[in-house]
Amino acid sequence: MAIEHEQLERSSLTRYVSPKGDFIGFRDEDHYKEKLKEWGLSSGKGAKKEFLFKERNYQRVVTIKGYETYGKSDEFNTLVIEFQDGNLCCIHPAFLKEMQASSFGKESMLQVEEKDFSIEEQASETQEQVEKPEPKLEAKPEPKKPKATKPKKEKEPKIELPADKVHFTASVKQFALTYNPFNEENDEVVVLENVVIVEEPPIELGLAWCSHSKTLKKFELQPGDKLEFDGKVAKKKLAKGKDVEEEFIVDAAVQYKVNNPSKIVKNG
């Protein structure tokens, strides 16, 4: 009875941020493990099932039921966690990761950010209050001869990325490593070239990248392989790997990421 009463007290103390509606669940155990690694919540010893939700004066056990996506191209995630009393709540992956540290509670990440913002605002207001010195009168410089103007380069037209899942054709360019700040490790990715969104008219993206997931590894891809697949695309630059060999570094800038490729067909 005492334990149940304590759980009820904690439930009343917790401020829940409910999901907006339907959220994305995990397809299977491999999908769950892949997302944990992406969020930096993987222990390296398997897929952890229970996590701690901490406040200053108590902590509760939660499980991850799924996630929501947000951003122009759904490239960001918010976790949906479930408490032991059945309540659901949304939380940022980095904040849940911070809660797992034994030092959590002294000063949370969000509180530090709020203090830093307050200090910056005060500094800005103080700077505006300082009287500006009167400008000194200086001799007018002699007018310079106009320089020959160079013709301006025409800007490339901006590509409007579709928000929904679309069909792609592409070729495997190479494999690379990118630094993941969530787990502080390098993740293996596949760099694609000749990437085209099959629409009318077709949209040519050039280079793109995606995670080298277990699903893709089953195809034993090699540079030059031609692929067809479905997925979502987002404007997300491929970050360089940390302390990696030259063969895992991409020469050209890759500006687009393909999320959750499915219905993959390898044509050669």
Brief overview, please?
With 268 residues, the chain is α+β, with helices and mostly antiparallel strands. The chain is built from 5 helices and 9 strands.
The biggest sheet amounts to: 5 strands, antiparallel
* CATH fold naming of the largest domain: OB fold (Dihydrolipoamide Acetyltransferase, E2P)
**What's the order of the H and E elements?**
HHEEEEHHEEEHEE
Structure annotation, total helices: 5
In the sheet with the most strands, the strands line up as 7-6-5-8-9
**How many domains?**
2
Shape: globular
CATH architecture of the largest domain: Beta Barrel
- The helicity comes to 10-25%
Strand percentage lies at 25-35%
Q: Spans with pLDDT under 50 lasting ≥5 residues?
A: 108-131
CATH class of the largest domain: Mainly Beta
| Mean pLDDT figure | 81
Notes on the protein architecture:
The protein is built from 5 helices and 9 strands, in the order ααββββααβββαββ. Strand 3 (76-83) and strand 4 (88-91) form a beta hairpin. The termini are far apart. 21% of the residues lie in helices and 32% in strands. The protein folds into 2 domains: 2-99, no CATH class; 166-266, OB fold (Dihydrolipoamide Acetyltransferase, E2P), CATH 2.40.50. By secondary structure, it is α+β, with helices and mostly antiparallel strands. The longest helix is centred in the middle third of the chain and has 21 residues, at 109-129. The strands form 2 sheets. Strands 7-6-5-8-9 form a 5-stranded antiparallel β-sheet, with no helix packed on it. It has a 4-stranded antiparallel β-sheet with strand order 1-2-3-4, covered by helices on one side.
